Every structure is written in C-alpha cells, then in structure tokens.
Amino acid sequence: MQLRHQFRVYPTPGQQIELARAFGCARVVFNDGLRARQEAREQGLPYVSDAELSKRVITLAKTTPERAWLGEVSAVVLQQALADLNTAYRNFFASISGKRKGRKVAPPRFRSRKDNRQGIRFTKNSRFKVLDNGKLRLPKIGDLAVRWSRTLPSEPSSVAIIRDAAGRYFASFVVQTSQDETLPEVGFEVGIDLGLTHFAVMSDGTKVAAPKFLRRAAGKLKRLQQDLSRKQRGSQNRKKAVVRVARAHARVADTRRDWQHKLSTTVVRENQAIYVEDLCVTGLGRTRLAKSVHDAGWASFTAMLEYKAARYGRTFARVDRFFPSTRMCSACGRINEKMALNLRAWECPCGATHDRDHNAAVNVLAAGQAESRNDRGARVRPPAMVAPRGEAVTHPDAARSTRSVEGISVL
Predict the structure, then answer these.
(1) Does the annotation count 132 as an active-site position?
(2) Of these residues, 193, 278, 295, 391, which one is catalytic?
(3) 3-state DSSP helix/strand/coil % of the chain, to nearest 5
(4) Between 236-270 and 218-229, two packed helices, what is the crossing angle to 10 degrees?
(5) Which of 116, 224, 306, 374 has CA atoms 20 to 30 A from the CA of 252?
C-alpha cells in the first residue's frame, strides 16, 4: 500500500527564493504545454503527444532566450509538471468517454502565480535524499530543515514541496509499505449516522458532539476579514492581512483534521466492521445548512475511515444513499412518512420509541451487515482497497473532479 507522510519544512530566505523560482518554472511549463495542445486543437492538428510536448516546451524551450531560465531548476520538476498536465487530460478524456465514474471532469485550466497553493514534485530520478542529520537535500535548492514527527517506514519514491496560502512549507513523501498492519480481530461492528446536532451517533448508543470548529472561530475570522477589507488593493499591508486570514483558516482546518484523525482511528481500532450511509454532501452544500455541513467535514471523516479500515484489515462499507434509515423502525421494519428535521424522537405504531439518530445508526448497521453477507452468513464483499492518491502538486482545478462527495444525510 502506498502511504503519504507530510512534514513541515523551514527553508531559509535563500531557499525560499529558489523554491519560488521552481514553482514559477513548473507553472510556466504546465501553461506552455496546455497552450500548445489548445492551439493544436483550434487549428485542427493532431493531439500533441506526451513525448513531443516534452521536447517542445522543455528541451527546445531551454535553447530560446525567452525560456533559457528553465535550466536554473531541476529538470525533474519540469517533467513532473508535464506529468500533472498529462494526468489531467487523461482524467478529462476518461470522463467524457464514460470510463471514469462519477460526475464529469472539466478540462485542465491554466495555473496562476496568484494561486494560494504552489507545489513541485521530485522523484527518485532527481536524487533527492534524506540526510543523516534529518535534513532533506533537494537538487538546486539545498538542504531543507524538516520537523520530523515520525520516521518513514521505507525509502520514499517521491516528495512534493508545497507552499500553502498561509505561507507554510510542507514536504509530502510517498512511501510504499509491505508491512502487515492488520489489527487483532474484535467482535464488534458499528453503524454510524452523521449529523449536525451530533457529529456521529453510533449504533451502540454512543454520541459524539459536533465540535463546530468554524463556528467557534467565526468571531476572530470576522474581525480579520473586516481588517482585510479596509486595506488598499495591491498594498503590502493587504498582502499581510491576506496571510493573517489564511493562517486563521488553516488553524481551523488543522484542528478539524486532527480531531477527525483521532476519532476515526478509535472507531477503526474498536470495531471489526464499520458501515456508513452513502449520501451526497454536494446537494446539502447548496441549502441553508451549507455552512454547518462544510464545517462538519463528513466526507473527509468517512474517507479516513475507509483508508484506515483497508490499512488495518477492517471492513468498511457504504449503505445505499436511498436507504430510508431515518424513517424505518429498527424494531418492526415499518417505513413511516418523511419527518421534519426538528423531530428528534418518534414513536412507531408497533409501540417502539426511537431516538431519531440512534435508530438510523441501527438501521445502517443492519443494512450493511445484510449487504456484506450471503444467506449462509459468509462475507461476500471484497476487502476495501484504497485508490492511489494523486500527487499533491496537481492544482485542484487543473483537472477538476466533480464526482459526488460522500457523506451522510442529516434527514
């Protein structure tokens, strides 16, 4: 299994200049390649192959006065920028031909130097190296100081250097692990209903309060945004205010991610099988509940459950999004009429009284167990597998994947 480990790096002022130069060169090569293919299409010429494109926008471009400065950065960085473009085109073609599942993928777009997130990638061909003193040596950049929080399980196959909107730098390593990390089997299975009143309600009755990280930081974010709005456009003070706002948002996102990691790890360790409801968050993100829905982060939490279950030998499954988990009585199976959101408890004609969220979690567990077992009680669902994660330096809109975001309904 391929894993990604991300660590904070602290480049010196000189190294920051070199990284900015590498970011810019990678962006220019990406845009030149995209422009060449767009012009070929407009002129009715054949699609420019990967090899021809590399020769045109890298090899030959370095010999021209306009692009001679491309030789100041590692050639691997430029090649990986074109690899991102090629991946974006393949995803786009697979989407419009129907080979790629989910919603349609947009064609790649030009990268901008004003993008909040910049990144480059080094592969083994670049001969990057983690030194004995803990520093990361990158070609034509130097030795970067890394804040290590854990040791890498194996030699990394690639490393991406990322600069986020808050001005922080990260090194993201891709490693291959063959170590058996399967956890000892436990006799518990759980169904999870995610919501807004409680972030998660388990089928065993456990309720996890919604932390609402964004709501708690709303006051500070409001003041910082007001301060930003008063700055003159293009001024240095406005740039500083932009960074302050970005840092505040990054703190919220980091806190949410850390909390979700801890909760998902606990759930995976304590249960042999985890079942959640497969509903689209995208639609809920267009309603009056949009801010609360995005603040909850259901999709990222379920994604953590999925890859951790595959990593540690657990079973993870999603129940059909049209399954009436909320309206179905977990005692008799009767499906009742639709309920208002403010109805938190209800009574079935069979005499059973249900807590809305706990009843949904129990139904999710039963549906997941029924789907993953055959008539003899044997498991028929194949073990969950994690798809290789794309390289982190591809801009999120370069090949915009508009597939449905997995999540859980609040109904």
Answers:
(1) no
(2) 193
(3) 40, 20, 40
(4) 160
(5) 306
Q: Is 189 a catalytic residue?
A: no
Catalytic residue, chosen from 32, 84, 189, 277, is 277
Catalytic residue among 189, 295, 357, 391: 357
H or E segment and range at residue 226: helix 218-229
The pTM assigned to this predicted structure is: 0.82
* pLDDT tens, residue by residue, 233-292: 989 999 999 999 999 999 999 999 999 999 999 999 999 999 998 877 888 888 888 899
Tell me the pLDDT tens digit for each residue of 159-205: 999 999 999 999 999 998 877 788 999 989 999 999 888 999 999 98
